[in-house]
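If your schedule permits, I should be very grateful for your opinion on a structural question. Thank you for your consideration; the sequence and its tokens are set out here:

===
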Amino acid sequence: MSALLPRPGNGPVKARSPIRHLRWYIGGLFFLSTVINYIDRQTLSVLAPYLKEEFTWSNSDFALIVISFRVAYAFGQTGAGQVLDRVGTRKGLSLGVAFYSLAAMLTSLASGLRSFCFFRFLLGAGESANWPGATKGVSEWFPRRESGWAVALFDSGSSIGGALAPLIVLWIYHTFGSWRPAFIITGALGFCWLLLFRWFYHSPEEHPRLSAEERDLILSDRAERQADPGAAATRLPAGTLLRLPQTWGVILAKTLTDPVWFFITDWFAIYLVSRGFKLEDSLVAFWVPFLAADAGNFLGGGVSSALIKRGWSVAAARKTVIVLCALGMMFIAAAVVVSSLWWLTAFFAISTLCYAALSTMILNLPADIYPTHSVAS
């Protein structure tokens, strides 16, 4: 019988037959983690109309819960990137997913506004590791000409998770007649993923199922990136990163565009109800912007990769998609002046498609700009 996959430090292992295109299976792991990340995150948003009624929260009260998550998420990403670059993708993502899955399950114990704020703060701190970890994993496993597709793959998990969450959460809520089991069941998904990840994920240098040809493809591209002028083979300190204008370009781009996506992920269910639509009767409308975002991930990654193959520079290809999609995001403003559910949904869908394509490009930038050891930071 063939040996199980190795663990670093366990000595030599029995060779096993290579898996063709293994890097895309690795990309699939990051996709699944992002799906689960968003199902956990969206559980509260889907249940928000019911929780507001049960606990007599105002929109301002609910906003405090949302802000608790966002504050922890913002500061958590900064710390998570540093930790991931120190301990590596495998260990860092394992710790992050275990932490936020436990926090999601503990939310079932919440009894009021303060406890919901506390548990959402913990969830935000844990979930913040997913994007730095997945982006770092892409920089380790994919050549630059494929990184647009790879980032699109894992980032599309956010829209798939967002689309699946209402179906799963509402079914659990109506089946059990309570919101508490929804947090337990969705939170447990992360531990299922963790078993798969720990068994299957290793770095390209150590993975026993990676063919020699694919390993050469991955490592030679990485060597070319490290050979670029100004590239560093060691991890760059936070102070050095913050002195680079490229870093602030990424920060400002996310600062000015993420609120569109966060409005939809945090408030869309409440927004539909406030416009007079019953949530159970408008699930299709709830899904469409998330499915459009899924298409946008691959549109952005595909267009930029196609332009690079046609001879465009990496910077020009990324910037073209970013500028065009930034303009397309403004269609969300038109939702204010329409009363039809389907027109409202269409404008949200155009905006989320453009946002996702733009976000895919911005998430590619760290791997384009910085050495592998600093990508997560």
Summary: The domain at 22-225+244-374 is CATH 1.20.1250.20 (Growth Hormone; Chain: A;).
